[in-house]
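thread from #wetlab-drylab

HS: before we spend reagent money on co-crystallization trials with S-adenosylmethionine, can we at least see a predicted complex? here's what I'd submit
DV: go for it
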Amino acid sequence: MSDKSSVIYDNHGRPINYLRLSVTDRCNMRCKYCMPAAGVNFLPREELLSYEELERVIRILVRLGISKVRITGGEPFVRKNLIHFLTRISRINGLEKIALTTNGTLLAPHLPKLEEIGITSINLSLDSLDQERFESITRRKQFDDVMETFYLLNESSIPFKINTVVMKEENIDDIIPLSELTRKYDLSVRFIEEMPFNGEGGNGSVLTWTYDEILSHLKDYYPNLETISTGPHSTSTNYKVPGYRGKLGIIAAFSRTFCGTCNRIRIDSQGTLKTCLYDSGVLNIKDVIRGGASNEEISDLFRKTFKQRAKDGFEAERRRKEKVNESMSVIGG
Ligand code: SAM
Ligand code: SF4
């Protein structure tokens, strides 16, 4: 029997069918936009939801209409036995897509198994094609490992995209070289506006490299840049250089222009439900589960919470008691 029922809608009429699940806050890199050089206070192991608890939550959410899950972190491959967990959730009826977001440093040996499991897509974070700049941004020397993953993914059957966070002082010179990858490779390279989630209060409310700046930079170099259509819940606006195989995208993550069609919820590494990236958490699932709630009680809490969703990221931010200052490694992006 299928675990899946029909999709659930929030209080603004948006379907909720996509879960982003952070399986750890730990990471082997220290990207400047994500966490301080010294890292963050990583959670004690018992504060993470166990794989059994995570699987139970996914099953409940699939019955409520979630059909896609993205596994993220921290770096998901830093958590032990990730492959076993992915194998288990790949057997959940009604869970149609399992995607991963990764920094690519630890993925290579697992690729054949990921193909076997049927992972639907992978987002690889890559902020520079220049080794020095890569090391300056990530504060780690793992450029070669990530590039090996990039080449292996190109050979693999799993579709993948590149995510690049655009930072004024760091990687503007990479926008064109990264875009040029789409000449040879049939992949999407997406440029993301930097958000204030670096664990240190971020860049406040000012962002210099917005969607508009990124687009105009691309258009200066590619005057014939074509706009192409996007899916109904896409966060990126998509483009193509005529004659190139791949696509380019810009994600206005800070300007928040896509909230009207947002179909996603998040469960962060502390087991907190977020119905918007910019909220501070709307339900502590870990406490609910460990308090002994039944599946029906947990479902009811999810339903209730989905009906109180903020209209957009600005409203979610206004509802917070404290200013945004957490690290993206806790939330999962
Ligand atoms: N470690 C994995 C990785 O780097 O892909 C998964 C977790 S990471 C938090 C998920 C995504 O969030 C990455 O694509 C990363 O570039 C993005 N990200 C992290 N901090 C960000 C920030 N302050 N603004 C925009 N994107 C950010
Ligand atoms: Fe780690 Fe990903 Fe954050 Fe970089 S963006 S520090 S790779 S969690």
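DV: Residues 27, 29-31, 34-35, 73-75, 103, 125, 328-329 surround iron/sulfur cluster (ligand 2) (CB under 6 Å).
HS: ok that's useful, forwarding to the group
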